[in-house]
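Re: the multi-chain job from yesterday

Posting the exact lines I submitted so nobody has to dig through the queue logs.
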Amino acid sequence: MTETMSRYHHGDLRAAVLRRAEEVLRESGTDALSLRGIARDLGVSHAAPSAHFRDKNALFDALAVAGFRRLGEVMDAALATRGSLTDDLVAFAAAYLDFATDNPALLSVMFARKHSETAGAEIAEAVAAAFAHPTALLTDAQARGEVVDGDPEVIGITVLAALQGLATFVGSGFVTPEQSHGMVEDVVATLMRGLAR
Amino acid sequence: MTETMSRYHHGDLRAAVLRRAEEVLRESGTDALSLRGIARDLGVSHAAPSAHFRDKNALFDALAVAGFRRLGEVMDAALATRGSLTDDLVAFAAAYLDFATDNPALLSVMFARKHSETAGAEIAEAVAAAFAHPTALLTDAQARGEVVDGDPEVIGITVLAALQGLATFVGSGFVTPEQSHGMVEDVVATLMRGLAR
DNA sequence: ACAAGAATCTTGACAATGACTATATCGGTG
DNA sequence: CACCGATATAGTCATTGTCAAGATTCTTGT
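And the result, structure tokens for all chains:
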């Protein structure tokens, strides 16, 4: 599985393309990403990736799926050891923001608005899987009576939206990663207590 | 001021370019936006826009500034008539989400992570101006004792992040505009009451 | 009024990219 | 072992962003 690097002109492209694409995304941003550039970096011909990705959008779709898978793993890891609900939420939020800080370009690709219809379903599945753990965290707490009654969908989306919004602010530079790190606990506390006095 | 359409080959480009760019953004999305295409649509030579926008990024920067200006106007209008804090927040949130629904591509340009350093300051200024009204809404309420004590920065960012996150979900199709519309009141209520029981 | 200079627009060119077609090579299967 | 699909290559094309001169319009100082 890991023995064939590129003896000939064959190998496990697709995986290599995805890996390299994520690297470029992390190191140089979205618009530094080109199919030809990746092919060049991997030592294959400029049209080789087209055998695995019909389109550049297909590559973006695959990157989005992979991104949500990894984000899901990160959040699962953060929620492996359970404490109080607040502690769990802080850990979850910190993990989300760390991911956003480390992969800002990937995150914006994940939430881009141009996924093909066919890939949309696959992405939606990956999203559901990624957010399954955190939403379960809330619905469980709701079942135990630690969280307000109400549509779990609304509650979950509100929390996730707050984190994604903060991640967007970090990604666009309006909030520094340090600021976001320092704010996580207070933001979660604000979400828990609510605004009203 | 509005008399010179384009008798000759001169006119008020820059404004025309910005206007057309926003149209393309709204109608066809970000990657359908090309300098040459805009020039073509406006009947000028392909390099004409370069006199007003050094770079394609410079155009994006200008679009971001214009976007935050318009977003600020929209929010100001929504907060023109004040009611209860909750009502005001709902009106504000609805206006934000309407803007996001009507201009998804523009919103992603506004929060893109590649603003030149020089333009960064101008954008930051526009952002501050746009969010001045909503944040004042919260700090005023805080001063009147209607909102929890605590760092106003954190409280404001939490609310704005929740809206921006929801806007992102709408923009990427994970939440439909209808759903977001139906959720606004509940989301604001959730933010007001908090999660904890 | 008018010449000088700045601002704006045009034309031409170039390299890079995404996408397409035709062709060659590899791997597995009957 | 021949066949065929999957995979990779080479070649080509239109489009795009960017740059460099050069032309045209507007402004400004005198």
